Fold this sequence. Notes:
about 30% helix, about 350 residues, 4-stranded antiparallel beta sheet
Amino acid sequence: MTNLEKLLNGIEVEWKPLGEVATIYGGLTGKSKGDFIDGNAFYISYKNIYDNIDVNCKKLEKVKVSDSERQNAVHYGDILFTGSSETADDVGMSSVISEKFDKPVYLNSFSFGIRFNHNLKLIPEFSKYLFRCHFMRIAIAKTASGVTRYNVSKARFKKILIPFPPISIQKEIAGILDKFTMLEAELEAELDCRKRQYEYYRNKLLSYDILNCEGKLLNNVEVEWKTLGEICEVLRGKRLTKRDLVDNAKYPIFHGGLEPIGYYNKNNRLANSAMLINVGASAGTVGFCNCDFWSSDGCFCFSHANILNQRYLFYALQSIEPIIKSKVRKAGIPTLDNKYIERLSIPIPFRGHKTKGLIFI
């Protein structure tokens, strides 16, 4: 017997189509960019849903909502989903409301929520794991369609079968998974320490003090701080359609993340290139590809110039990645403006005359 069979001990689990047992509601409607400045109400962002199996109620965003508006407020126990995304991995990601709010809290416009009928119950402690487990992620992925933009079909989503084990079994399963989550958190804390150690030495090597931002010689190396717009061209890739994808093609396609979304028989970027994701939950993430690839419009790259080494650029951008991510537009699907990237300054060390543009890295 499997562990699950032992837990159930002969109890039959009822499975029902989601559309028969729950109501689906949408996020904020009729909002402009200005409504997300100095708001008077809270809403749950797309990234909050994507990053957490249960909503982080300490990181709510602000939006303007008047008393006359008819907007859907979230309730305790609701399950929220990313309904539209630039990548297949991001679409349909779930997060559960596990706290009760004193005031109305709303939902991002590119997301949707479900609320189960009163006669059937899934406790938040259980449903936060259920909708992120492997078989549910497969079922949810089948409801979405697209190539470089994916959208959940509500009609197909309503047909997903949902298990309803007894409350006592739900609590027991949740308790077991909570213990594994605690163990995972301990391992992640250790990994985080190693990452911070790496970041400390990387940032130390790329700091103003070490590189001497006054432009004086440091060990026969001169340093200038230049904007990316001054030293290279920020390149936006080209979006492909579904029919362009080839199963056994050579070149990976990057769009909205550091994992390829597919493969193509042509490339528009050379190997050993830095990249910067500009859309989706990974917007602001810096990456590097060591093979020729195709950059879609969800991935910024940088022109290969004689004055700039791409691996050095990768480390320089990675050192300011938190700053870059802070400039990602949070309303709707996260996006990053190329004009901001062009204004970013990085240190350029070289030997010899500046006019020769010789990077020593």
